[in-house]
Q: What sequence folds into this?
């Protein structure tokens, strides 16, 4: 005698049916297969996308860009940029958050002059970056990097040495700052 | 205040075609040609993924991180993410090649300033290069905040670029011109 199974359209009712789990797995497999196929086709499509020539930044024999200032006054960083490419290049500087050895993360407010450089082929120009040091920022050496926004490679390491206001100066050597237990792990807001 | 100075050079990436008027024209031509070979949805998804990639890069800077944090902690961030999820925009942009939007903007700008553009236009068509295996890499999911920050960074760059290009021939603010060689005064029925 032939055995007959009924399959319900109602998911709640079909839960106990012997084929329900099989159908659920089958549906999931089909859905996943469709997703993965689409993803693979899109990746293939990506390989055929037209290339856009870019730019890389090469630091010129420099290890670190150094700046220093007293809390409450600005520090200044200067960067000379030379365009070795055969067409005009644009350079827009941006500073990363700076971190001290004692664990303080500083989101510096910086102003670049000019805001971005448009360099003709073979031209060299100077960027000045004025970094405002908050009055309440603890003294120390703050490290981060200067990025020329949008370039494929390269960032310039930056260290800004912050000295306390006159009379209460607690100078920490660059790279040798000792952790302060009270300030460790905290992010201070600027004054 | 003390000064810290350094020097960097901007160069072509190793192994690539390099930036020249010819390669930039070829790239632009290929981009335009590629539009005929893909759907509008894919083209926009690729641009969206490109803005998101730019946004991720900008988020690593102090200014970008600050802005991101502000958006993340406000209603904008929560609403943006909900809308993004409900509209299934992550699925739409999933796996798509992120268009290098900033490179494209800068390359187009360089073409506008090239002194041999006319000469190179005469030698078109120039075969363009394809991204190749680099374009087949895994890309992270496109996030609402990444796109927002990418659009912000791109817009700033666009405004600055147009101003920089125009600056050489930009008349001063409040400039005026006076008509010369007519001493007969104002004539006409209205101002009589």
A:
């Amino acid at each position: 005698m032939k055995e007959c199974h009924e399959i319900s359209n109602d998911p709640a009712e079909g839960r106990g049916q012997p084929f329900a789990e099989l159908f659920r797995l089958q549906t999931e497999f089909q859905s996943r297969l469709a997703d993965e196929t689409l993803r693979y086709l899109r990746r293939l499509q990506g390989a055929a996308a037209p290339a856009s020539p870019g730019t890389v930044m090469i630091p010129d024999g420099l290890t670190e860009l150094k700046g220093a200032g007293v809390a409450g006054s600005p520090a200044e960083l200067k960067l000379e940029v030379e365009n070795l490419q055969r067409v005009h290049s644009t350079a827009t500087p941006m500073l990363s958050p700076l971190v001290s050895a004692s664990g303080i993360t500083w989101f510096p407010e910086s102003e670049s002059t000019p805001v971005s450089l448009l360099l003709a082929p073979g031209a060299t120009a100077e960027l000045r970056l004025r970094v405002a040091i908050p009055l309440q920022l603890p003294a120390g050496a703050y490290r981060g990097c200067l990025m020329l926004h949008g370039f494929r490679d390269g960032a310039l390491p930056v260290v800004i040495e912050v000295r306390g206001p006159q009379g209460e100066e607690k100078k920490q050597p660059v790279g040798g700052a000792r952790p302060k237990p009270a300030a460790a792990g905290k992010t201070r807001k600027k004054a | 205040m003390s000064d810290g100075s350094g020097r960097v050079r901007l160069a072509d990436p190793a192994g690539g075609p390099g930036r020249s008027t010819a390669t930039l024209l070829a790239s632009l031509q290929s981009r335009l040609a590629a539009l005929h070979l893909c759907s509008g949805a894919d083209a926009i998804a690729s641009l969206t993924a490109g803005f998101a990639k730019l946004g991720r890069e900008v988020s690593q800077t102090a200014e970008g991180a600050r802005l991101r944090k502000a958006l993340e902690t406000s209603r904008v961030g929560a609403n943006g993410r909900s809308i993004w999820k409900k509209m299934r925009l992550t699925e739409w942009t999933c796996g798509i090649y992120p268009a290098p939007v900033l490179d494209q903007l800068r390359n187009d700008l360089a073409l506008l300033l090239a002194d041999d553009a006319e000469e190179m236009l005469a030698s078109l068509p120039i075969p363009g290069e394809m991204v190749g295996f680099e374009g087949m890499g895994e890309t992270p999911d496109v996030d609402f905040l990444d796109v927002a920050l990418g659009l912000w960074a791109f817009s700033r760059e666009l405004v600055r670029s147009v101003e920089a290009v125009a600056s050489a021939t930009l008349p001063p603010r409040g400039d005026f011109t006076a008509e010369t060689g007519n001493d007969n005064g104002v004539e006409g029925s209205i101002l009589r």
Notes: Chain A touches chain B through 78 residues (CB under 8 Å). The first strand of chain A starts at residue 56 and ends at 59. Chain A has two helices and twelve strands. The mean pLDDT of chain A is 80.
